[in-house]
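Feature request disguised as a bug report, sorry. It would help if multi-protein outputs had a clear separator. Right now it looks like this:
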Amino acid sequence: MNSITETCVVSVPKDKVFKFLSSVENLPKWSTQFVQKLITTDGKYKAVTPIGEVFIRFETNPNAGLIDIYAGFTEQYMTPAYLRIISFSENSTGVMFTFFQWDDTDDMTWKIFCEWIKIEVGNIKKYFS
């Protein structure tokens, strides 16, 4: 299974970074390649993306700095991407974003996702600059 991880360090406290990134509503502000628009349907989030509308769900653990982002065409089949927020000091925070190439992700789509993750992490860094 292929994987890619992109990282950045920002001069902002961990709690502030976590609060921003763990809010589904902020996804379009930094995930500009994948999320073209965020909508709610029956109280559930969906993202309009270049590959179609997908359900979006976040699972978070603020103490551990973990944000698992699930996306999929159905709520029953969603694949995760992983954000890790790490405090280096009071005003220095690391962000790690990891994707895996799941069995149903073809190589061309994977290549596009690998380019997008670089842009998305760059957007996170810019947002906190």
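(second protein starts here, but nothing in the output says so)
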Amino acid sequence: MTQDACALLDSDHQKVERLFAEYQAAGNDQSRKSKLAQVICMELTVHTTIEDEIFYPAFRKASGEDNLVDEAEEEHEEARDLISQIEDADQMDPLMAELQKAIEHHVQEERKEMFPKALKTKGLDLMALAAQLESRKTELMAGYQPA
């Protein structure tokens, strides 16, 4: 693996951005939108889990950036809440739009603030973290059945 933890996490962000674009492009195809919503929710659930379990604690410990991590964790909580609503919703579109907006905001903060700081933080082994993230992600993905 040649990606560091920030690159690995951002490749997840890019994947979800593409999935949201596909969701928007699906128009009135409710079956397609439903499948995409399931994939988006699964991807985000796995992504937030690996960040919460592995990346954020390591970043917090090495950098002392409590406020940045606290805010990111709150945003994950908001995303999880929206995901649980989407899973039970008859009308997904407004919730998906809200989720997309929340995720875009969160991703921008990570890209502009957290990742640049992580890259400069002494004592934060981003390559070792990437290996841990990848391993945990594989484990979590195995728990999901393809839709």
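Even a blank line would do. Unrelated, but nice: The mean pLDDT is 94.
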